[in-house]
């Protein structure tokens, strides 16, 4: 264990923030750390939109499903997969040549690049004593969010991120046993399901304690309910309309 691993092992989602601002210097350092994340072929296929304007945060909070902490946090970052930039340089340097910015592979690369940069930024924020929470809810009304932020073709909001000084201690949520995610030299289906059985007990006890005994649903039951409930099925059509998933 060292300071870096200790920081990573103490990550928790923060949904309540103090009124103090995130400084311009902190924001610059956080985004700079994000930019140093690994990037496939150095394409750097992402853009970050920092939202600080109260009225804009209020609207984004509504579009994200009424999540008040989007409105209340000092800075709300919208992490976008961005192939628009690459398309423009391809047109400039290879005029008349076919390009494949709409391929599933490039969509995948852009999405992964965005996630890697965002996680670097999250760790940087926490190292400065700030707290973060990812907001996937901005994809619920993704077309409206994109219009509100003026996103061009080949750009889509992957998720948001609230950043601020924490005003709560949420405790650490237990994860799957490492045996469930670390397999040696091949995938072991029995090992996976044994880990789920162990985690069900741990997760049920955690939820029971966190809710004062009101809930104790095991993880596997929660995931089954999630998987059998349709969610954001508009994403495929939206992405195709924005120029993604063409090839």
TrEMBL record:
It comes from the Bacteria. Belongs to the flavin oxidoreductase frp family. This is Oxygen-insensitive NADPH nitroreductase. Residues 9-164 form the Nitroreductase domain. InterPro entries: Flavin_OxRdtase_Frp, Nitroreductase, Nitroreductase-like. Keywords: Flavoprotein, FMN, NADP, Oxidoreductase.
């Amino acid at each position: 264990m060292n300071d870096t691993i200790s920081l990573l092992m103490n990550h928790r989602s923060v949904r309540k923030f103090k009124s103090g601002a995130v400084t311009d210097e902190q924001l610059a350092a956080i985004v700079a750390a994000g930019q140093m994340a690994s990037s496939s072929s150095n394409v750097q296929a992402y853009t970050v939109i920092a939202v600080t304007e109260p009225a804009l945060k209020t609207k984004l909070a509504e579009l994200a499903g009424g999540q008040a902490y989007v409105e209340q946090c000092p800075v709300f970052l919208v992490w976008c997969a961005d192939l628009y930039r690459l398309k423009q340089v391809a047109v400039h340097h290879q005029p008349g040549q076919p390009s494949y910015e709409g391929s599933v592979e490039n969509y995948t690369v852009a999405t992964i690049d965005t996630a890697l940069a965002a996680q670097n930024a999250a760790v940087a924020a926490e190292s400065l004593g700030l707290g973060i929470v990812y907001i996937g809810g901005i994809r619920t009304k993704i077309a409206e969010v994109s219009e509100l932020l003026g996103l061009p073709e080949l750009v889509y909001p992957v998720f948001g991120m609230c950043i601020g000084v924490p005003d709560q201690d949420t405790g650490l949520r237990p994860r799957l046993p490492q045996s469930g995610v670390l397999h040696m030299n091949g995938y072991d289906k029995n090992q996976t399901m044994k880990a789920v059985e162990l985690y069900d007990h741990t997760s049920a006890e955690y939820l029971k304690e966190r809710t004062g005994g009101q809930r104790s649903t095991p993880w596997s039951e929660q995931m089954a309910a999630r998987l059998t409930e349709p969610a954001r099925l508009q994403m495929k059509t939206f992405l195709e309309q924005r120029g993604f998933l063409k090839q």
